[in-house]
Amino acid sequence: MTRIRMYATGSCPYCMMAKRLLTEKGVAFEEIRVDYNAELRAEMMRLSGRRTVPQIFIDDFHVGGCDDLYALDQQGKLDPLLRG
């Protein structure tokens, strides 16, 4: 089963857009809130090399942020990743 993790904050519009797309795709994902937890934010930065949210991972593949997620979808590459 494909594991999808998204590091996010509650007020980020890009996080909301990414969640909307994943929900429309009908996939379950784990939302990891970093806005109140410095350790989780540090984990996100260590894994992604980035400071901004969202940071999205499909299994061990680092998708990147919201724009990266939408770009994969437009290229027809997102659905195969989601299916594993």
Write up this protein.
With about 80 residues, this protein is an alpha+beta fold. It has one domain (about 5-84): Glutaredoxin (3-Layer(aba) Sandwich). The chain is about 45% helix and about 20% strand. It contains four helices and four strands, in the order βαβαββαα. The chain has helices at about 15-25, 40-50, 65-75, 80-84, and strands at about 5-10, 30-35, 55-60, 60-65. It has a four-stranded mixed beta sheet with strand order 2-1-3-4, with helices on both faces. α1 runs parallel beside α3. It is globular.
Short description:
The chain is built from four helices and four strands, in the order βαβαββαα. It has 84 residues and is an alpha+beta fold.
Secondary structure layout plus pairing:
Elements: E1 4-8, H1 13-24, E2 30-33, H2 38-48, E3 55-58, E4 61-64, H3 66-74, H4 78-83
Parallel strand pairs: 1-2
Antiparallel strand pairs: 1-3, 3-4
Would you tell me the overall average pLDDT? 97
Instruction: Characterize the biggest β-sheet.
Output: 4 strands, mixed
Q: So what's the CATH class?
A: Alpha Beta
Domain tally:
1
Strand order of the largest sheet: 2-1-3-4
In the CATH hierarchy, what is the architecture at level 2? 3-Layer(aba) Sandwich
Calculate the terminal CA-CA distance, rounded to whole Å: 7 Å
Rounded radius of gyration (Å): 12 Å
Query: In the CATH hierarchy, what is the superfamily?
Result: Glutaredoxin
Would you count the extended β strands for me?
4
Order of helices and strands: EHEHEEHH
- Decide which structural class fits the backbone: alpha+beta
Q: Please count the helical segments.
A: 4
Specify the helix fraction band: 40-55%
User: Could you name the ranges where pLDDT drops below 50 across 5 or more consecutive residues?
Assistant: none
Strand content: 15-25%
CATH topology: Glutaredoxin
- Cα shape: globular
